[in-house]
Design a protein that fits this description.
The complex is a heterodimer of chains A (102) and B (557).
Chain A (H helix, E strand, L loop, with lengths): L7 E7 L5 E4 L5 E2 L11 H12 L5 E12 L2 E4 L2 H8 L8 H4 L4
Antiparallel strand pairs in A: 1-2, 1-4, 2-3, 4-5
Chain B lengths: L5 H23 L4 H10 L2 E3 L4 E6 L4 E2 L1 H14 L3 E4 L4 E4 L7 H9 L17 E2 L14 H11 L14 E4 L13 E8 L2 E8 L11 E8 H18 L10 H8 L1 H15 L6 H12 L11 H9 L1 H10 E3 L5 E6 L10 E3 H14 L4 E3 L5 E7 L3 H10 L14 E2 L14 H14 L2 H4 L4 E4 L13 E8 L2 E8 L11 E2 L4 E2 H18 L7 H8 L2 H8 L1 H8 L2
Parallel strand pairs in B: 6-7, 7-8, 16-17, 17-18
Antiparallel strand pairs in B: 1-2, 2-5, 3-14, 4-5, 4-13, 8-9, 9-10, 11-12, 12-15, 14-15, 18-19, 19-20, 19-21
Classes of the chains: A alpha+beta (102), B alpha+beta (557).
């Protein structure tokens, strides 16, 4: 039996800055994971991924990352995505220094 | 030091011009990422977890003050005010913006530096003993030959699409400070019958399948060196596995074919290509050599040093730990620790880089070195200047007296930055350094090298650490495996795994149990951790790590 599909967000890095970005429901890219679209259907996730991968002038390294619903929107499941959402742990650089809601 | 010739400068300028256009084409959409990626990698530009990363080569780890100041300038102007020195004598900037990178490369070219072949399946930055030109035990300075290899390998038409990356390290002394046995090719300068030549070691490497290099040839003359190296890389270029990237490095080729078969093939190839080397390389080598003539060492009293050493315990501790023997009378090699307790191993702020540049210019014959152990070296300082140098270092957080001790940890960037990492390295290093500083034990423990990698690729050299730590992802949780008894020197060996790994919370207590076991078992304070391990073996450490009674005994202390 195939494994159950776990919810995903589409994520990538911004082409120019390299910042971690997430795809929103209205086809925009956001720096905030909480604003990302949480995709719960596998077929839908593949379509969203293809659409995002076509935007080669905006983003690089597009992929689906596991996520779960939280009180304020999607939250990471794996620790790697948790680091991508905030920034490195040795300095207060990256998103944790620039954003308030992570 | 070697200064760029017109040819070098024109070559780098041309590459930078090309890359600027490639970036423009990428930004305009004329190039896709698939088309652009190999181009950016050829120029040292990676995409990591949070941002791009630019890896700049510091050939054979040598810098002058002007170059160091320019590295500081890049950090301030285009990054977040710091840089990270790596185990392959590179510096990495963690936050550049894509459109700024061409300007960064131009700024590097102004001081004769570049990021060419710091990535990709090419011959990478050639590394060398960080005491080169200064060490008391040196047969010859390894940097001239390293520079010759840099020139030979840069844009070498045959070697731009190798099966995988290829790393060369050179040492000029019998004591191996350049990890030559864990490189694709390790060169050791040797003397035989009054003639200087090279012992060629191949097939070393860490990563997923760690191997200690094997001697391919005990003595290659200077005349034959470049054709011989070309033959080695050429043989591997044809034989190396391109079907499986985990089996593509020369260590696997040597393992699969056997060293004798490789040696025979290299001989054949060498005989074929030797006549095409007409001696231009030798003339060039002589020119390069003259650029590395030793500085004019001065003769002076060391009374100031002797007084400070006698009267200032902090200076004495630093001098005992961080200085190494220099070949010129009255001089010392200064090792500047980038491992302040709790700091990120290998990181220096722009201000610290400027301070080190100023000290090198004023007191160090304008030379700096970057070590594979992620520290900075002032290779030529007269002892009478050491109290002044120490005071300046102290003011800027650069006088930690811990070289070779438990807090002088090699750590790769790990999952705090690296896209390949499976766990974090830096916080583990920070915790260990802080803990043993709190315990005030590290000088009592003595020489102990901890090396941490955040994934199986082993940039943190964990296999050859006296204590190696490998961070893995076990079912979505960071997990750390420990190896003991690794050795990166001329007596190189790979560490043995202790057993199951430890969680991020458990790894620090585990390291402490290992160290306390060593302190219990050592013959005398003179027996180092590695010597004790080689004498008593794994069992006592295993017991301390995994036997509940043993674990509790230490937990209760």
């Amino acid at each position: 039996m195939p494994r159950d599909f776990t919810p995903k967000v589409v994520t990538a890095n911004a082409l120019i800055e390299g910042d971690v970005v997430y795809l929103t429901r209205d086809d925009q890219w956001t720096r905030h994971m909480s604003e990302a679209e949480l995709i719960t259907d596998e077929a839908e996730s593949q379509l969203r991924l293809l659409m995002a991968q076509a935007q080669t002038e905006t983003v690089v390294g597009v992929y689906l990352a596991e996520a779960k619903a939280g009180a304020n929107g999607p939250e990471p499941v794996h620790f790697r995505e948790a680091f991508r959402r905030t920034g490195p742990s040795n300095y207060r650089h990256g998103k944790q220094a620039e954003l308030t809601d992570v | 030091m070697y200064d760029y010739t017109e040819f070098d400068a024109a070559f780098v300028a041309e590459r930078n011009r090309q890359f600027r256009q490639q970036v423009e084409r990428r930004l305009s959409g004329a190039l896709t990422e698939d088309e652009f990626k190999p181009l950016r990698l050829m120029n040292g530009l990676y995409l990591q977890l949070h941002a791009y990363m630019l890896r700049v080569a510091i050939p054979y780890g040598t810098l002058n003050s002007r170059q160091m100041r320019q590295l500081a300038y890049l950090a301030l102007r285009w990054d977040k005010g710091y840089g990270h020195f790596t185990t392959r004598q590179n510096i990495q900037y963690n936050w550049p913006k894509l459109r700024d990178v061409p300007d960064m490369l131009d700024a590097l070219a102004e001081v004769g530096m570049h990021a060419i072949q710091t990535s990709g399946n090419t011959i990478r930055n050639v590394t060398a003993d960080h005491f080169a030109g200064a060490a008391a035990d040196e047969i010859a300075d390894p940097r001239p030959v390293a520079e010759l290899i840099r020139q030979w390998s840069t844009d070498h038409p045959e070697f731009q699409f190798l099966p995988r990356k290829f790393k060369i390290a050179v040492t000029g002394a019998a004591a191996d400070r350049a990890v030559t046995r864990a490189h694709d090719i390790g060169l050791q300068i040797v003397r035989r019958d009054g003639q200087t030549g090279y012992r060629v070691i191949v097939g070393g490497g860490l990563g997923r399948t760690p191997m200690i290099g094997k001697v391919l040839n005990d003595f290659v003359t200077q005349d034959d060196l470049l054709p011989y190296l070309e033959a080695v890389v050429s043989v591997w270029n044809l034989l190396g596995r391109r079907d499986n990237k985990y089996k593509s490095r020369i260590k696997i080729t040597v393992h699969e074919h056997g060293i004798d078969d490789i040696r025979a093939r290299v001989e054949d190839r060498f005989n074929l290509i030797r006549p095409t080397f007409t001696g231009v390389d030798l003339a060039l080598f002589e020119q390069i050599k003259s650029a590395f003539a030793p500085p004019a060492f001065r003769t002076d009293s060391t009374a100031v040093f002797d007084t400070s050493y006698r009267t200032d315990p902090i200076f004495r501790s630093w001098a005992d730990t961080n200085l190494a023997a220099h070949r010129a009378p009255g001089y010392a090699i200064v090792q500047i620790s980038l491992k302040a307790h709790g700091a990120t191993p290998g990181d220096a702020t722009a201000e610290q880089m400027r301070v080190m540049a100023d000290l090198a210019e004023r007191y160090g014959h304008d030379e700096l070195r970057i070590s594979h152990e992620q520290n900075v070296i002032l290779p030529h300082v007269h002892k009478s200047d050491l109290p002044t140098v120490h005071a300046a270092l102290k003011k800027h957080g650069l006088a930690t007296a811990n070289i070779g001790l438990i807090s002088d940890i090699i750590a790769c960037p790990g999952m705090d930055y690296c896209a390949l990492a499976t766990a974090r390295s830096i916080p583990i290093a920070q915790d260990i350094a802080r803990r043993f500083d709190d315990l005030k034990l590290e000088h009592e423990i003595g020489e102990l090298k901890i090396k941490i990698s955040g994934c199986i690729n082993a940039c943190g050299h964990h296999h050859v650490g006296h204590i190696g730590i490998l961070g893995l992802d076990r079912a979505g949780v960071e997990n750390y495996q420990i190896t003991l008894g690794g050795d990166h020197t001329e007596t190189a060996s790979l560490g043995d795994r202790t057993g199951p790994g430890f969680s991020a919370d458990e790894i620090l207590p585990a390291i402490e149990r290992i160290v306390r076991t060593y302190l219990d078992y050592r013959d005398s304070p003179d027996e180092t951790f590695l010597q004790t391990y080689r004498r008593i073996g794994m069992e006592p450490f295993k017991t301390a790590l995994y036997d509940n009674a043993g674990a509790n005994a230490y937990a209760a202390q």
